[in-house]
Specification:
This protein has one domain. The protein has a two-stranded antiparallel sheet. By secondary structure, the chain is mostly helical. The two termini are 40 Å apart.
């Protein structure tokens, strides 16, 4: 009886690992920076940022209005502030990308591999492209809030 359970679990593990490896080995590259398909793609993407920004502001306003105290709520407020900052940074970066001269981007095999920052504007644009520096800590604070809410009595 015990060996049957072990055998079934072993088969499941073998199939799972095999499936994962097949999908992993046949995957095509997913580039970190992708275009949005013309101006209408960028407009709809920017509208998404605006709606997300408004949603986070509403959540933050409700937090302050209800004066929620206790485990996790402070971390959740930090998460909301960081996501709002990320949204402003990313929205600005998308907008600035439209006015940056194309010769500033270094191309290799039809992919952008670098950027030449020579002016203050270039450095501002470059900073807007580092949005993960804000987003990763935001998710850390969300994780901390969820953990504290889970541990609360």
């Amino acid at each position: 009886m015990y060996t049957e359970k072990y055998t079934n679990g072993s088969r499941f593990s073998t199939v799972s690992v095999s499936l994962f490896l097949c999908l992993f080995l046949w995957a095509t590259p997913a580039w970190a920076v992708q275009t949005h398909g013309g101006s209408e793609g960028l407009v709809s993407h920017q509208l998404g940022h605006i709606l997300f920004f408004i949603g986070m502001l509403i959540l933050l306003a409700r937090q302050y209005r209800r004066q929620l105290k206790g485990p996790g709520w402070c971390e959740f407020k930090v998460f909301l502030w960081l996501v709002i900052l990320w949204n402003v940074l990313t929205f600005s970066g998308h907008w600035l990308h439209e006015v940056v001269p194309t010769d500033k981007f270094i191309q290799s095999n039809s992919h952008t591999t670098g950027f030449q920052a020579t002016t203050a504007f270039d450095f501002i644009f470059y900073v807007t492209r580092l949005d993960h520096i804000v987003l990763v800590p935001a998710f850390f604070f969300l994780l901390m809030a969820l953990k504290r809410w889970d541990q609360a009595p």
